[in-house]
Structure prediction request, 87 residues.
Amino acid sequence: MTSRTTQTVVHFSSPFRLPGFDRAQPAGEYRVDYDEELIDGVSRLAWRRIGAFIHLPAIAAQSSTLQMMPIHPSDLETALEKDHKPS
Prediction:
């Protein structure tokens, strides 16, 4: 099966929390990797998301420790929507 990883950067204006995290993460930009696999049998190329990972800490943060944490894409979308809602 053919697979690929795509990357994006998301921005949080306020501290945020995702399920499975022991504490809130600070506002900032975070790199997110999406693992996808090619869907066989379709007439054109189509990819199915099979995993997502967020890189901690934020891109601009100075830290000696870097982590890549698995996340559920819908949890990330919910947190981003909450962050971007006007107060």
